[in-house]
C-alpha cells in the first residue's frame, strides 16, 4: 500500500470552495480504486493549512488513477473548482508507507 499525503496552503477566504474541491476528490479517489482517509481543515491556529491522505494498493495503481488527470471530464471539473476559485495557493505531495496498528 502507498499513501499520498497532500500538504495544502489554502486561501482562508475560499474555504467553501476548498470544501467543494475536497468532496469531489474524495469521491473520485474512491471511484477509481483508492481509499480516501479525509481532508483535514483548519480549526485553530494557522488558518491557511490543510492536509489530505489517501491510499492505493500500489504505486502502479496510483499511476493509473493519475493518468486520468487532464483527460477525464470529472477530473477536469474537480480541478476547475481549484483553478476558478483560487482556493489552493500551493500544494505538495509526499508518498508514504503506512504502519498500522494491525501490522
Automatic annotation (TrEMBL):
Positions of the NIPSNAP domain: 7-99
Protein name: NIPSNAP family protein
Organism: Micromonospora zamorensis
